[in-house]
UniProtKB/TrEMBL annotation:
UniProt xrefs under SUPFAM superfamilies: Carboxypeptidase regulatory domain-like, Porins
Protein's organism: Spongiivirga citrea
Descriptive protein name: TonB-dependent receptor plug domain-containing protein
Membrane topology listed for this record: Multi-pass membrane protein
Record has Transmembrane as a keyword: yes
């Protein structure tokens, strides 16, 4: 067989394999009164698919190979999860109705989905951002670690200023997160003064995936004032 013909066949097989490695899934999302829920977000494992339900509660999403779970998240109703086994139709029903107001995240909040080993289920949590420019008390916070310890939820700062992001599990011996300051990866943030901080964001799970294996223990993103 000529090389050109062989290449054509290989490309064809690759294309066919790619097509069959994806599944188009459609379904509906409704509440306990059988009313559709609009603008609910569809997640594939821990990744936001950027697909939302329409006003009739319908959705359609392409699911890549190896996805283990589908999730739907609504700011009013919370999170529902479904173990995915290649189905082409999945319907979600919030049988318990709306969440109490105190348990809801704001609709504008950025939400991430992660598996929590303690509760043995997936949970939705807010991606925390500290607007330090408005909140910092320069006298109270002498170091960047004091600021993070007091103001950033989901983060543990030890007495010796070691930082661990809650809910992160990795195979790495180290639990230190990746530090990204103004777009640059740093090994230490000790030199940063609290008064110079604009925002601090905590990334984990799929949100930290942009940084590859370096973000396995989560990422602390710091933006300083310009």
């Amino acid at each position: 067989m000529k090389k050109s013909s062989l290449l054509t066949v290989m490309l064809f097989l690759f294309f066919v394999g790619s097509v069959f490695a994806q599944t188009k899934v459609s379904g509906t999302v409704s509440n306990n009164k059988n009313k559709p829920i609009a603008k609910a977000l569809i997640y594939l494992d821990s990744i936001n698919s950027n697909v939302k339900t329409d006003k009739k509660g319908n959705f359609e999403v392409v699911v890549p190979e190896n996805v283990k779970a589908l999730h739907v998240y609504s700011s009013k109703y919370g999170l529902l999860s479904h173990n995915f086994n290649g189905e082409t139709s999945v319907n979600f029903v919030y049988i318990h109705g709306k969440l109490p107001s105190k348990d809801r995240l704001a609709q504008k909040d950025k939400v991430s989905i992660d598996y929590d080993e303690t509760s043995d289920k997936y949970v939705a949590y807010k991606v925390e951002t500290v607007e330090a420019e408005e909140r910092i008390d320069a006298v109270r916070f002498l170091t960047i670690y004091d600021l993070i310890r007091d103001r950033v939820a989901g983060v543990i700062v030890s007495r010796d200023n070691r930082i661990v992001i809650r809910g992160v599990k990795s195979l790495s011996a180290s639990q230190d997160p990746l530090f990204v300051v103004d777009g640059t990866i740093l090994t230490s943030i000790s030199h940063i003064l609290p008064i110079d901080v604009d925002t601090i964001s905590v990334l984990k799970g799929a949100d930290a995936g942009y940084y590859g294996t370096q973000g396995a223990n989560g990422v602390l993103v710091i933006k300083t004032k310009s």
